Amino acid sequence: NVPFMIVLASVFVVVLLLAGYLPARTVSGFGILDAFRHKATSASNTIFSHRNILILVQVMISGMLILSVLIIRDQLSYISKKELGLKISDVVAIPFSESPEVFENTLRSMPGVESFGYSQRLPVNTLSYDGRVVNVPGFTQQIGVESCYITPEFLETYGIKILAGRNFVPNQKADSNKFIINETAVKTFGWTNETAIGQKIVWSTTTPGEIVGVTNDFHLESVHSTIPPMVMLASLRMSSYSRAFISVRINHQNSEDVRRMIEKTWRELNPQGAFMMVTMTDSFDQLHESDHVFSRVIFYFTMVAIFISVIGLYAVSSYTAEQRRKEIGIRKVLGSGIGGIAYKLAAPYIYITILSMVIVIPVVYRLMSQWLATFAYHTTITWTTILISGLVIIAMTLASVIIESIRAALVNPIRFLRDE
């Protein structure tokens, strides 16, 4: 991408010019006599010196990234552990097969296949949508719902629980005008699980029917979206529309062999078809792939920022120790201990680090709260996470400056005083 490369080169050149100009401008402003009298750098010892401000900004950037990484890690951990309302481990989904009766009989006789069921769409997946409206008694306006045709075995395969009423009966034509809804639909319609059974609704403006069951809520999409009200219909006909997918629960011990047998059988029955096998756990992970990418990018930036901060702090602490070598020598001659001298050298950087955290915490808290708000279901920012990030920053600072401070404090004072 040529425009991007031009921008990148321009940024590189500007940074180089600034990096060279600022020190050159400072040095050129020194008076000759002041420079020889060591007065040229006296202004840099103030709390608002350029050096301290740059260190503060550097540590703030590292602190922001470290705290952000910890919050993102907490959210991704929350997502991976969140109860989805269904069991997707060891479940794969494949397309509708021609000669469905033959394929079903093969699956039933296949060792390692525990159960299977048809559905129009898949949970925790974006391969298919079916948004409809329903007319509910007592509501003047239609209510938007998600819909899905299923066979009775679908609920069993995914471990979805019937909380009230019953499941569909296999191949029962009387269930053609019956519905199963989820808990969110029950609450949206103003009922309870028990009172929902037997209620009449009109699905998609043309299909009246009766509610016979209520299931627990389960995720259709990522946790960025709330669980919508859902209406499930009985799939009674062998068609690639209402039975677009076959979900198969496989025994974990020999899953690879079973997958190969399923694929081989499907291809034999569908020589012209395009085979696809969706592993439902992978499907869920793919829904949140952008979040994982975002986490990795922030992590890499954090590592770079920490490295730059550590190198910068080490260089500045070495420079400060060299500047204050006369003071260190006098303090040692007057009886100051190594610990006291090391603390004296390291203390300004510790104070800068604490100040940076005071500034960073409210800023990151607000920004990451906005990011967490993009998830319908998310964790909270805890004081434990904030405390850990603060300790990491302080440890980073100490590791950068304390070694050089101790080394300076251990030097023989005669060496410094003789040079003076």
- As laid out across the biggest beta sheet, the strand order is 3-4-9-6-8-7
Ranges with pLDDT <50 over ≥5 residues? none
Distance between the termini: 58 Å
Strand content: 5-15%
Task: Please give the share of residues in helix.
Answer: 40-55%
Overall shape: elongated
Calculate Rg over CA atoms: 33 Å
Number of strands: 11
Q: Please, how many helices?
A: 14
What is the N-to-C order of secondary-structure elements (H for helix, E for strand)? HHHEHEEEHEEHHEEEEHEHHHHHH
Mind summarizing the main beta sheet?
6 strands, mixed, barrel
SS class: alpha+beta
User: What's the overall average pLDDT, rounded?
Assistant: 87
Tell me about this structure.
The chain is built from 14 helices and eleven strands. By secondary structure, it is an alpha+beta fold. The protein has a six-stranded mixed barrel. A four-stranded antiparallel sheet has the order 2-10-1-11, with helices on both faces. A hairpin with a 7-residue loop joins strand 3 (131-135) and strand 4 (143-150). Helix 3 (50-81) runs antiparallel to helix 10, helix 3 packs across helix 12 (338-372) and helix 11 crosses helix 14. The longest helix is centred in the last third of the chain and has 35 residues, at 289-323.
